[in-house]
Amino acid sequence: MYLLGYDIGSSSVKASLVEVQSGACIASASYPKNEAPIKARQIGWAEQAPDDWWRYLKAATEDIFEQSLVAKADVKAIGISYQMHGLVCVDKNLRPLRDAIIWCDSRAVPFGQKAFSDLGSEQCLSHLLNSPGNFTASKLAWVRQNEPDIFNNIYKVMLPGDYIALRLSGTPATTVSGLSEGMMWDFVDNQPAQFLLDYYGIPANMIADIVPTFGLQGEVSASAAAELGLQIGTPITYRAGDQPNNALSLNVFEPGEAATTAGTSGVVYGVIGSVAYDPQSRVNAFAHVNHNATDPRLGVLLCINGTGILNSWMRRTVAPELSYPEMNELAAQAPIGADCLSILPFGNGAERVLCDRETGANIHGINFNRHTKAHLLRAAQEGIVFSFAYGMEIMKAMGMNLQTIRAGKANMFLSPIFRSTLAGVTGATIELCDTDGSVGAARGAGIGAGIYADHSEAFATLKKVQVIEPDTKNEAAYREAFERWKVLVP
Cα–Cα distances in Å, from 355 out to 281, 318, 327? Predict the structure, then answer.
């Protein structure tokens, strides 16, 4: 018995086949093999053709079944993870009216800013938990104003994962979690955000029917089964945006748990057990995969643009002769706090955690007589960690009591200094796990189909490859370095 998971990214579509009992991924594939194109017809725009995602999905599906030789009838449920905040518009024939406006497209920023000003921060933050910003609803407002012929022919609007589920089942649907990430869910009234839809002139009937995040969302249609070689009627039982799904993949469901990634940019996604928001909207709050009105679970999202890119900049400009492991070894020769040398990693565009300001990166306290390359390398990694901790303090003010941080053992988490500093300054236990988004989506499908009784059973086989406990002996040194760094934040 097997579960099929899809991860619809902006770079590729990945498919994974997971065996239910062992939790093992027996086959995976991603397409295209080179990075998927993003159309930028103007500066700040980013679009992709939804049917390209379907084409990539078909190729990945064919590949994994050729690898595994599993009978299609043995696939018992399908789960979907997808790039967040995108906009897909379909007509009454359920065909896309235009290319999807994806997450990194910034054309809708002025629309969100004006809505925030006109409607008021209290109304937006208390009901949406965020500024309307550059999210899906604001992208749709841009279409309404600039492409009225397309807008007038829209039957339903959906997120990228909703479109893939539509292609699989023939039925348009969405989720509360999805609506919340698009700024179309009202957490006070527990329904679609009518006040924002009215403000933007968006008819409420453009919103697709709401299905549960876990549960029967649709079944593979005869046409999709013919294209993919799957069995007609295979249930689609889970979908979520990539960050909530990454948290699910790492078994992050409960308050006090957080999922992190640290690639070119870095993300902390922490779970809180109440409906709350940051008054300055420096972090974003969405309905987590297990949220409901009576027992809320919010995912609070922090993004730091200048994460691994700072470390790679250090390698290119400061230590080009060293590999990353050698950089880590050299950095370890400097003491905690890098002998009062501090680096702010905000050099990769505007940072949401700084209220969307672009301050640039800064090096503070450098002394030409005592600081060396080792100090610079350590200060860079500590500065990245401290930016995470800075955002986590905002989450704490919203009600998160951080206890466990989970991540994949990749990118910055390969560095012992990065891991020990993060555990030391937050006081949280770090668990590094072997998983990815498409595997998580498959496990999520198992929960939604009732194959697993709950998430504890679904993730009982999740492999922890390393556990890092806080270094209590050096807690004061980490804290002192962080407080010195924090004073420098503009």
Answer: 7, 30, 32
> Which of 262, 287, 252 shows the shortest CA–CA distance to 455?
252
| Closest of 479, 490, 9, 43 to residue 282, by C-alpha | 490
Rounded to the nearest integer, the mean pLDDT of the chain is: 96
Neighbouring residues of 473: CB distance < 8 A, sequence distance ≥ 6: none
Which DSSP helix (H) or strand (E) runs through 18? strand 13-19
pLDDT in tens, 216-241: 999 999 999 999 999 999 999 999 99
Give me the numbers of helices (H) and strands (E) for the chain, helices first please.
17, 23
**Which residue type does 453 have?**
A
- Cα radius of gyration rounded to whole Å, the chain: 22
pTM above 0.85, yes or no: yes
Calpha distance 461→89 (Å, rounded): 39
* Mean pLDDT, rounded, for 108-132: 97
Question: What's the CA gap between 369 and 418, in Å, rounded?
Answer: 26
For the segment 57-90, what is each residue's pLDDT rounded down to a tens digit? 999 999 999 999 999 899 999 999 999 999 999 9
Other residues' Cβ atoms within 10 Å of the Cβ of residue 225: 17
